[in-house]
Amino acid sequence: MHELLLYGQVPAARHDQVLRILSGLAAMQPRRILQRCILYKPQREPEEPGLNIRRGGTQNVAVKQAKQTAAPSLYYTKLIQKLSDNDFGKENGLPKSTTQPLSANVADGEEPKWSMRWEDIPDTGDRGVSIRFTNTTDLVTGNPHEQMIAAGPNRFVTEYFVEGHRFVLGNVIIFLHRILHEPGVRSVEETPKSILPSFANLQLLDLSGAYVLEAKVRVQDFKEASILESGVNELKDFQKQMRGCVELALPDRLSLDTRVKYRPPHAAAASAQNRPR
């Protein structure tokens, strides 16, 4: 699945106004969205390109003559949990129930609440919108954290929450949201929390309270030029409709980079040796 994206920023003071405008434009009531995002990093590091040549040995003579290819990049992956207000703790911050392991089990006919999402770095093509490949897999059984650990293998990094409202206008999915996190410095933990904090105790990541307006069109058949062009045009039409209200723009692709930054061990050692004492 490919996603076509444009982003804008909405100050907190204009949130209610923009929400009403989007409701009228999409001819629907806003759908409130609460999500928990749990970020994971691959435990292994990619082998640095050309490392086998520097190791020496008779076999490497032939390797030098072969065409070198860059090692594949590693990417952060995240679990997404759909939440409701009842999933959070009490107002005083105390848990409302005893600790239970994370579970993705769903009964027949129920909508999955857990999914695993992978996102590629956006395309460099200049079509006026950001384009990236994504893969989302619903989880319907087992412990989602244990599945993520075994799949990589991966390591738990951090978790945060997303709160906002969603609209649908034609094929454009509109998401007006902001990110929240649990305050305070947490000790080094290897697993996400099984009991969520109170929603009232969460803090804004952006202290200004500004919201992010994400406009997205999903394209299944990316190779079909007519389908891609239709999605791009529909997204740009929405961009024009929002002019004077919210300026939607193409984001810097590197700001959406999900690759794990790899620093070769020998480079880290050289940096430590050259550091002034």
CA radius of gyration is: 22 Å
Structural class by secondary-structure content: alpha+beta
Number of strand elements: 9
Estimate the mean pLDDT confidence: 83
The percentage of residues in β strands lies in 25-35%
Stretches with pLDDT under 50, minimum 5 residues? 48-69, 93-98
Tally of contiguous helical segments: 6
Percent helix: 10-25%
Distance between the terminal alpha carbons, to the nearest Å?
A: 51 Å
- SSE string: EHEHHEEEHEEEEHH
Strand order of the largest sheet: 1-5-4-3-2-6-7-9
Bulk shape: globular
Question: How would a textbook summarize the main sheet?
Answer: 8 strands, antiparallel, barrel
GO biological process, one term: regulation of transcription by RNA polymerase II
Main location: nucleus
Subunit structure: Component of the Mediator complex.
Subcellular location: Nucleus
